[in-house]
Every structure is written in structure tokens, then in C-alpha cells.
Design brief:
This protein has 312 residues and is α/β, with parallel strands linked by helices. 22% of the residues lie in helices and 20% in strands. The chain contains eight helices and twelve strands.
Length: 312
Amino acid sequence: MAAPPPRGGRHAPLPIGPLTGPRTPLRRAFARACAGLNRGLDWLPVGRWLHRRIHRTLQFTELDLPLADGHAGLDGLRLAFVSDVHAGSFLDEHDLCRIFAQIAAAAPDLVLLGGDLINTRERELLLYRGPLRLLRPPLGTFAVPGNHDHFWGPDIGLWTAFLEDQGVAVLLNRGQRIERNGASLWLCGVDDLTEGRPDLARALAGRRQGEPAVLLSHHPDFFFEAAAVDVELTLAGHTHGGQVRLFGRAPIHHSRFGYEQGWFRENGCALYVGRGLGVTVLPIRIQAPPEIPVVTLRAGVTSASPGAPRVP
């Protein structure tokens, strides 16, 4: 049975902020200027040196998500969420291979790519050929696009075709049933909120009554819509955790609702916003280290609240 449409006909509000939101001509000009600066810095050896120092602080954040009774077959299912890689700028194929080998060593059942795989050039996608071959999750690798994947690629169809040729299933406003030990999970994804055309009704079409769902959305503000239709878990990125935080606060905001990093809860549903792997413009992160969240589903837990991070 397909999931019902959003209650009350609500639609996810458009995000706001100096670097996000609908692309007006002024915003597009600003984005291209930032990309020009980024490309110039790419040539400086100090940029790669700084970025590699950042990745010494890469965190694999172990998290638990309780599920209601009746989904015992999903207990222990591990989801690795990889977002905001921004390959090409300060990250080359060798760097990606090293990071993806670490992801494989974490032994997730599913690897979920949360968008912004490229930064400012479409050809940066070619850097993933070798790294993706290192991933062999038993239940598959899945992806949704981010705003950079749209903005710097003339056709998202080429982005989709490349990933699918590498064995990655692209969940562009669609879902797929994941079956394990007699239980099932509806894994789905939507297009980017600022540059694409997200359609949650299409993504949830085919979900059975009572079947737990995990939604991939590059932009966290789409949680507003997912929580309205009882999607148990939304995984999002986009914010980089602020990338640069001063006195615990990020001067640049990418979420209208303050979904900056970590767990959030609405209507009994959970959102986790990962800080992502890469950077944009400057090869620096301050108080926002790169992160790969690994979520373990816990079935038959009476508490409906997501667990605190488990650091191995």
C-alpha cells in the first residue's frame, strides 16, 4: 500500500541563506564567483595539504535508531551515509580511495551517497571510478543528487548514468524495498530541494502499510515534509555542519529550521544531518570535523528516541 500524501497538503518550505535557496541571477553570479576562487585555490599545493590535515580528524560516528516492535529482521542493519564529498577540489582519486577503503572497513550493509559528489566541474565525477570499486556493501550502494551535482552538470541524467554504470542505484524521487531476515525496509530518495524537483509522493509510492522508511535528501529542510508522512529516518547533509564555526556558531546558515548537524526530532520521526566529507571555497574546517555517520537500526526497542552517538 502506498504511503498517503503529505497531511494537509503541506509542502516543504524553500530554504534561505546567503549560499542557498532558489537560484536568482544574483545568487548564480555569486556561486560562479565562489567557484572561480575555488578553482584558483585548487592549484595551490597548500590547499591539498590543509585538506589532508582536515581528514586526519575524520569521524565515523556510530549511531543507533530504535524501531518499533515487529521489525526484528532489521535489527543490526548498518547504514553508512556519505555526503558532501566535493571531489576534485583539494581531494584527488588517491584521497578518495583511502577514504572509501575506510568506509568498506566499517562493514556497512548499505552505503548511501547523499549528494554533492562533485564541486565545481562535471569531470570530477570520473574520480569515483576507482573508489566506488572498493565498496561492496551486501545490500547495495545508493545515491541522491545535491545542488552542486545539478549546478555544475549540464544534465543530471549524465550524473545518474555514470553512477548507475558503476553499480550505484540512484534514488531520484523513487524508492526500493530492502529485504533482510524476513523483514523489509523502504529506502527512498528525493531530488535536491534548491536545484532539483523533489517529489516525496513518488519516492514513497510502493511503501507498504507499517513498513519503516529511510529517506535520503541532500537538503535537511525536506525533513519538514518527511516528518508529516511518518518517515522514520531522514538522512541529509548540505550544511557541512557550518564548515566554519566561531564560538560554537556558524556564521553562514543553510537551513531555515536550524538543522545544522546531528539529531533532530519531529512528529515522532528522526533526522540526522551529517557534516559531510569535503569543503567548498576554502580548504578549512573549524569546529566542524568531517564525518561519516553509521546508523545501526535497533528493532524491538520501546524508546522512540534516537540513541546518542556511539563512538567506537
